[in-house]
């Protein structure tokens, strides 16, 4: 796992590199947008940690340019800006996640793991959270070793939830996922599928956050 | 308040009237003079004609009508007179004019000595006639001028109004501006007199804008400047802790960590206070869905809420008000953040967003221990921390609710704290659905 760190503040760059190396990541750091773009071209990196306030250009532009050149990397944005607008611009610009400075190292590591898991999901055929394993090839789910069949829509939903474990997926976000497959949905379709999924999963594996959405917890229930 | 238009109009009309009347007076005097000359010439002519008639005159007295009086004197004897003359002489025994009163009138008398006959001829006309003639003349001359005064006054009024129009449109343009509009005034072809004023105003607006932007910029610069070193501090502490084996040192490092977090918290809250100033708020106001903001804040905090095994519910439906995203985000982050902080492990948090007759009502409840009864009002003050919370190792510095209160004030809303049915604190915020807003016309 090779990470490109784009950060102009040397002491932050050093401390972060040291911390991430001790977690087993390989880190290369650059201090300008131009250097970041040339580093991306080498194609050696799997992930980018990007500061928005760079001396030569805006981090968002680095992101957009990389995507235009079809060299977009999974990206975690770090910034001292904290308005919702910046956050949305960043995420719309192709970033996977957004962290406002000053952040907690634990938080950063957790978010990196989420991005990694999604990368892993894209590359491997198995996602595991707690006692639940999802087989992306066979669309089957294993709960404590016992296999269960899933309908296509149930599979889509549980994959979306497990990909974003620890985060809330709103009903409309989940609907969008299903729409992408050209499904016509009744207004309570999501509730029905979630209800059916729950029968096949451990108790409280899918949590309902009333008024907001659904979430699969990453907390290993001790 | 003095009105330039009224003052100019009145001054000009007063001057017009003054000039007209002094002209009338002047005219009256010269008409008087003119008519005197006419009548005097007439009297001399009369006297001359009587010189010849007098010698033929036989009767003592005759009727000369209303407008002529006549006396002929030989030495000191009156030998011919018109009926309307007294027995005494009506003039002087010297050639020339005099004024005299008799027969109930004032007369103009001309005395003349006929050299041939050695007779004094005194001819008189009443002065009244002269005034009447002068009056007629002056009225004929002045009437048109007097009659046109009201029209001239109207014309002056409109001319002044028209002349002041550029000034009026300038003040109108200024009046309609929102207090946050620093755009330069754009007035097509300004009057020469107004051009320097507009230039000055525009440079003033420019300076104001620069100052305002500097202030805004200052906040975000300060944020950036402080946040990066604090991030470095935190990461280094994290690295140090990982490499430390002695328990006592780990405790010291954890203490440092807590202090750093408190510093971060203080900086964030102070920045928020500066960002929720009325000008900033007014400049960034638009239609925002309160419910959607609540969803977004809950989503962002969920990982931390889930870690504490707390449950959170959002009850309500979309409610749009005129506000700024930032203000509402800050409001919910503080309220839900507090609830999350003070509710115990496996506690409950409830967020309500609904609408009553005139307000959007936001309510956040938690199942913590709440406040002491005497503290409900105090916690809204800056830097006040509940004694209950100081016992817990919360990281508040007592600004959270002060900021919430400031945001509520920006909306001209109300905030009430009381004991929640869940056992902890219930914060209820009313934000009015309609808020007066400045029209934004350049």
The strand line-up of the biggest sheet of chain B is: 1-3-2-6-5-4
Question: What is the mean predicted local confidence, pLDDT of chain B?
Answer: 83
Q: What structural category do the secondary elements of chain A indicate? A: alpha/beta
Give the SSE order of chain A as H and E letters. Answer: EHEHEHEHEHEEEEHHHEE
% residues in beta strands of chain A: 15-25%
Please write the string of helix (H) and strand (E) elements of chain B. HEEEEEEHHHHHEHEEHEEHHEE
Give the termini separation of chain B.
Answer: 26 Å
Query: What is the approximate shape of chain A?
Result: elongated
Number of helices of chain B: 10
Unreliable residue runs of chain B: 437-442
Radius of gyration of chain A: 19 Å
List the quaternary state of the chains: heterodimer
- Can you count the beta strands of chain B? 13
- The count of strands of chain A amounts to 11
Instruction: Estimate the helix proportion of chain B, in percent.
Output: 40-55%
Into which percent range does the helicity of residues of chain A fall? 40-55%
Radius of gyration of chain B: 51 Å
Secondary-structure blueprint:
The complex is a heterodimer of chains A (222) and B (442).
Chain A: E1 2-6, H1 10-22, E2 26-30, H2 33-41, E3 47-51, H3 59-68, E4 75-79, H4 84-92, E5 97-100, H5 105-123, E6 126-129, E7 132-135, E8 140-143, E9 146-149, H6 152-163, H7 171-179, H8 189-200, E10 206-209, E11 213-216
Parallel strand pairs in A: 1-2, 1-3, 3-4, 4-5
Antiparallel strand pairs in A: 6-7, 7-8, 8-9, 10-11
Helix pairs in contact in A: 2-3, 6-8
Chain B: H1 4-56, E1 61-62, E2 69-74, E3 77-82, E4 96-102, E5 105-114, E6 119-126, H2 127-163, H3 165-175, H4 195-242, H5 247-275, H6 278-283, E7 286-289, H7 290-307, E8 311-316, E9 320-323, H8 325-342, E10 348-355, E11 359-366, H9 387-391, H10 400-410, E12 414-419, E13 425-432
Parallel strand pairs in B: 1-3, 8-10
Antiparallel strand pairs in B: 2-3, 2-6, 4-5, 5-6, 7-9, 10-11, 11-13, 12-13
């Amino acid at each position: 796992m090779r990470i490109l760190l784009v950060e102009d503040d040397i002491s932050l760059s050093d401390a972060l590199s040291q911390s991430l190396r001790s977690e087993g990541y390989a880190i290369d750091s650059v201090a300008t947008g131009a250097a970041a773009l040339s580093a991306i071209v080498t194609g050696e990196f799997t992930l980018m940690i990007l500061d928005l306030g760079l001396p030569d250009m805006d981090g968002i532009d680095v992101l957009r340019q990389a995507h235009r050149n079809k060299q977009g990397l999974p990206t975690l944005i770090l910034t001292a800006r904290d308005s919702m607008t910046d956050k949305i611009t960043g995420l719309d610009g192709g970033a996977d996640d957004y962290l406002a400075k000053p952040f907690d190292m634990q938080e950063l590591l957790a978010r990196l793991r989420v991005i990694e898991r999604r990368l892993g999901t894209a590359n491997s055929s198995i996602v595991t959270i707690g006692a639940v394993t999802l087989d992306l090839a066979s669309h089957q789910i294993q709960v404590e070793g016992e296999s269960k069949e899933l309908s296509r829509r149930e599979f889509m939903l549980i994959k979306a939830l497990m990909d974003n474990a620890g985060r809330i997926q709103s009903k409309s976000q989940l609907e969008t996922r299903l729409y992408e497959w050209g499904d016509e949905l009744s207004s309570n379709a999501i509730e029905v599928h979630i209800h059916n999924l729950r029968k096949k999963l451990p108790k409280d594996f899918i949590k309902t956050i009333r008024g907001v959405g659904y979430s699969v917890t990453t907390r290993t229930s001790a | 308040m003095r009105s330039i238009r009224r003052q100019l109009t009145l001054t000009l009309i007063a001057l017009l009237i003054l000039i007209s009347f002094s002209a009338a007076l002047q005219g009256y005097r010269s008409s008087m003079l003119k008519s005197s000359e006419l009548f005097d010439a007439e009297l001399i002519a009369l006297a001359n004609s009587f010189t010849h008639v007098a010698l033929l005159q036989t009767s003592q007295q005759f009727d000369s009508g209303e407008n002529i009086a006549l006396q002929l004197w030989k030495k000191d004897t009156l030998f011919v007179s018109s009926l309307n003359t007294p027995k005494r002489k009506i003039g002087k025994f010297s050639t020339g004019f005099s004024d005299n009163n008799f027969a109930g009138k004032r007369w103009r008398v001309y005395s003349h000595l006929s050299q041939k006959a050695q007779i004094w001829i005194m001819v008189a006309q009443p002065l009244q006639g002269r005034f009447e003639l002068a009056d007629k003349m002056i009225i004929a001359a002045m009437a048109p001028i007097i009659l046109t005064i009201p029209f001239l006054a109207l014309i002056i009024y409109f001319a002044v109004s028209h002349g002041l129009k550029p000034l009026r449109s300038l003040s109108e343009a200024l009046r309609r501006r929102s207090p946050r509009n620093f755009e330069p005034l754009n007035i097509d072809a300004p009057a020469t007199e107004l051009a320097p004023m507009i230039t000055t105003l525009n440079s003033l607006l420019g300076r104001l804008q620069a100052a305002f932007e500097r202030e805004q910029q200052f906040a975000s610069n300060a944020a950036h400047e402080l946040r990066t070193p604090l991030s470095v501090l935190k990461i280094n502490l994290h690295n140090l802790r990982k490499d430390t084996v002695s328990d006592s040192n780990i405790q010291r490092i954890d203490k440092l960590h807590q202090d750093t977090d408190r510093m971060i918290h203080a900086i964030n809250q102070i920045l928020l206070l500066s960002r929720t100033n009325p000008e900033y708020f007014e400049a960034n106001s638009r239609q925002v869905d309160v419910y959607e903001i609540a969803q977004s804040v809950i989503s962002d905090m969920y990982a931390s809420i889930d870690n504490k095994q707390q449950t959170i519910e959002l009850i309500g439906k979309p409610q749009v008000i005129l506000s700024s995203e930032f203000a509402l985000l800050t409001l919910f982050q503080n309220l839900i953040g507090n609830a999350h902080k003070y509710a115990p492990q496996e506690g409950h948090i409830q967020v309500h967003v609904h609408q009553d007759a005139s307000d959007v009502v936001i309510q956040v409840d938690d199942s913590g221990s709440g406040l002491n009864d005497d503290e409900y009002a105090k916690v809204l003050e800056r830097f006040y921390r509940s004694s209950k919370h100081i016992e817990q190792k919360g990281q508040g510095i007592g600004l959270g609710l002060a900021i919430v209160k400031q945001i509520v004030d920006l909306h001209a809303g109300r905030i009430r704290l009381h004991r929640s049915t869940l056992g902890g604190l219930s914060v209820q915020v009313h934000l009015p659905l309609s808020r007066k807003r400045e029209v934004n016309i350049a």
